[in-house]
Model the fold of this input.
Amino acid sequence: MSEAKDGCVTPAKGPIMPEATAAPTGVSTLPTQEVTRMLARVGKPAPDFEATAFTGKGFAPVRLSDYKGKWIVVCFYPGDFTFV
Amino acid sequence: MAAVAARYEEFKKLDTVVLSISTDSRFVHKIWQEEELSKMLPGGVPFPMLSDAGGKIGSVYGVYDEDAGVDIRGRFIIDPDFVVRAMEVLTPEVGRNPDELLRQVKAFQHVVATGEVTPSGWEPGEVTLTPGPDLVGKVWEVWKP
Done:
């Protein structure tokens, strides 16, 4: 955990694609379409990702696959300070 | 999201990790926790609040609204083998039902543990079904809606 060092420009990896669909050697970024295609399907492996997080104590990167082996609930919501 | 947080002890009893995620930065999450959530819930939100900058993660999960620039309300249940078991996506105006989320987690855990299947609306302790040749045409004998 790099909580103490976290500044304001530490990017997280975001979606992490499996090796099989990664960009060919020599190409550093995935095509945009590859990133925006919906991949989450029931009965299929969860798309992995890394995000920066507020943990209640400080800031830390969280990777979904760190929790492999447990039941996980991921809740997306439209925004902090909204009404519902 | 706060409603899910309010039921966190129940998720913990089910050995289930909860993560929330929005396009807000982790800095906004911190201030929201301090200024508002901690006043709604004793201790505030007890699980990590993730930041999906630019909606890239939401795009992969099919919940990013490019026009609004936010992740709409979507929740996903992922099993210990890292397989997505359930998803529910709502437009933002209607909040989710933590009772139904907990019910589904319990049902999926039961199914994985026993190999049985759970009929509509199943709650722990209620009748389950064991698929097989003997059950064909006989579901009515053991279960009615």
Remarks:
- Chain B has a mean pLDDT of 95.
- Helices of chain B lie at 2-6, 8-13, 26-40, 56-60, 98-114, 139-142.
- The two ends of chain B are 31 Å apart (CA to CA).
